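*** Protein under study ***
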Amino acid sequence: MALLIILITCFVIILTTSQPCQIPDDFVATTSPGHIIIGGLFPIHEKMLSSEDYPRRPEIQKCVGFEISVFLQTLAMIHSIEMINNSTLLSGVKLGYEIYDTCTEVTVAMAATLRFLSKFNCSRETVEFKCDYSSYLPRIKAIIGSGYSEITMAVSRMLNLQLIPQVGYESTAEILSDKIRFPSFLRTVPSDFHQIKAMIHLIQKSGWNWVGIITTDDDYGRLALNTFTIQAEAKNVCIAFKEVLPAFLSDNTIEVRINQTLEKITLEAQLLDVLKNVTFTVGGNSFHFDAHGDLNTGYDVVLWKEINGHMTVTKMAEYDLQNDVFIIPDQETKYEFKNLKKIQSKCSKECSPGQMKKTTRSQHICCYECENCPENHYSNQTDMPHCLLCNNETHWAPVRSTICFEKEVEYLNWNDSLAILLLILSLLGIIFVLVVGIIFTRNLNTPVVKSSGGLRVCYVILLCHFLNFASTSFFVGEPQDFTCKTRQTLFGVSFTLCISCILTKSLKILLAFSFDPKLQKFLKCLYKPILIIFTCTGIQVIICTLWLIFAAPTVEVNISLPRVIILECEEGSILAFGTMLGYIAILALICFIFAFKGRKLPENYNEAKFITFGMLIYFIAWITFIPIYATTFGKYLPAVEIIVILISNYGILCCTFFPKCYVIICKQEINTKSAFLKMIYSYSSHSVSSIAVSHASLESMHGNVTMTNPSSSDKSATWQKSKDLQAQAFAHICKENATSVSKTLPRKRISSI
């Protein structure tokens, strides 16, 4: 059974191919003989005659709806061929033509294509079936046509079998540029890719983003719709609606027909490989086919305008494919072209610079709301989808900003009002130091100066105060590595040296006026002034040196603030910084304890009370400094430390030297040797009486002691001990600069005290 079906099928095919095709008269438009025949496919009629019933036989229907414009194109092809035949362009070769009416129908065009493919110089109009058509000679050498892209694609697929060149004059579908699918197709109009690109360009140039699409229901329309949708989305143009109309409309169903020919085609009959390289000139413009078989031509942009009830079409511009620009011929047209921007075709009002689009729940991206850019963000164009982030390290931006502003670099500048005030206070402190030094130098041999430890100790302490005041200048100005490393170490070492010197003075005063033998023996062993100063200061030098070696302070760029950049000194190691300050605090505490024990010694020449006050001021200042320093942020952080340094430095300077300067300047009568000795005698007498009373009280407290009145010998022993203690006290006070005093003091005076 299967074999019988195959034999019947082969018999039908052989019988069909052996008989010539019977062609109706209206199927052939026109023909002319020649050595080389060029085929033509033109939709001279609009459509085929419709039938109420489905076709019952495979025959070509009659065509209706004559198209005068297409008929003129057919005449243009005939005229061009006749001009070539009448010229010397193809000497000895006559071009013929065979033109068919496709009736704007694929089946009619396919029937005409089968006739084109019949063998050359064959009495029977048949198409031979072969595996290789390299040596096959069809009746035509090239084809012009066939109008619509849908028909062209069907025809071109048949012509691909024999690679017969096909030149399209109206087919613009983008898919026809695919040389793998349509290797023998060429065209003299641009691809729809460029047409749609020009349309998108025109929409953008007019400021529109909300448009509708009307297309035809065929391959051309569907491909164009798909390409337009893709390119529109890429350019943020939204499609409000899509309307697909039937491919072919009669005058009864549409008022205005969109059927205008844009280009007049002049063709030369060449083979496929020659056609691909051909170049010709029309109207001063040179044309050629590119690698995709597309001609390097453009489009005319036309304006449809209704005037007095009639629709007029005027040319506004030309679209240049190569440069993607519109060429406007004159100023009047240019003005009218610009008026397109006045036509509003947007779903939402455009967002101004400084704002961004916030898409609503609508399915279209062109429907949105405008939202201000947040802080540190900006937008410099209209309708930006999102705001751009500023570089937070160097720039900032306020809300709804169009640009980023450069951050201002801040530090405690020399011209800052607070810095100027603090520097003035530091300079005033330096002046006080110099004045005190001058006063002490001019009164070198007075008891007040000598009781202060001598001029050398005073000079060392004053130098430390000078360096402390000078160190504040390193906290002002643009931070540098040198200033960051110098300011803390200079203050730490100089302030430690100052406290060390005051510590030796406190220890000396306590030693001089202490009448407790055990305490006095301990203080004598402890009191080594030079060793104490070098040891205490050396430990601080070691701390600062290790700090500079392992974690030295450096310049830090602080970008955490939103609008400014803070240049500051990063201490490197909080542990090292705290160790330096803690060590000074320990020395100050020891000094405070010694000074507190000697607070009741002779008032006119005793510094213990004032040293106590100075240390209290230091403690209060630096205890207050810790929470303030931890919570302060910004360029005024160095000012906090300057203030604390000034307070502690002024406190110690005023408590240590100002009372003595007051005595030297305003109380000169008590700054004499006699007044000094009188004060010593008075204090010693009072101290001896107190000791005697104390001893009597202690003896009366013992229950096993029966003696109620001390003997004269015991009383004499007590007085003798008092005299020895007082002599030792006097010797300690005056041993450094008391040579002149000892010479003027009678020997019997000492023994009689």
